[in-house]
Amino acid sequence: MSSPEATRLLVRIGVVDLLSSTPTTTELQAAISRALRDVAGETVSDHEASTISVLGAAGGVGASFIACTLAHLSASAAARPTMLVDLDLSYAPMAAMLGLRPARGIHDALAQIDTLDAVALEGYATRHGSGLKLLCSSIDGPLPRGVEGSEFARLLRLARARQDLVVIAANR
Known about the structure:
With about 170 residues, the protein is an alpha/beta fold. It has two domains: about 5-40, no CATH class; about 45-170, P-loop containing nucleotide triphosphate hydrolases (Rossmann fold, 3-Layer(aba) Sandwich). The protein contains eight helices and five strands. The protein has helices at about 5-10, 25-40, 45, 65-75, 95-100, 105-110, 120, 150-160, and strands at about 50-55, 80-85, 125, 135, 165-170. Strand 3 and strand 4 (about 135) form a beta hairpin.
């Protein structure tokens, strides 16, 4: 991976501090102190997001539109950290509604679920200009596969750890 590609990846996943490959003890202690100050007094439960799941009773009733609008308003008008999770793994309609072309997505994240943390998960989401983070199938990604309930539960816990709101656009 080239240096510009690596830098872009680090920015996408939310890296806020870097150390040399061989930091001194003083540098390492300072970095740990900064990280601890950043999260002082906070736990995952302090950050746990509200979750809204939108499921239409039939196709074409506007559930996707409602989910997308709720998430967009939360991110833009309310300026709340928000993630929209599109569970239409075949077509990813939320990406089209938001004018996005995700290069990475939910399948990529699930392939790494055993080593993924909440910060890294955001690297698999595509960011909209409003600040909304969309987690869906990637445009050129693998063919959709079913998602195990336990995998999705882990993914949802990670998403909720860094957001104020997670909107799930569920399909029938």
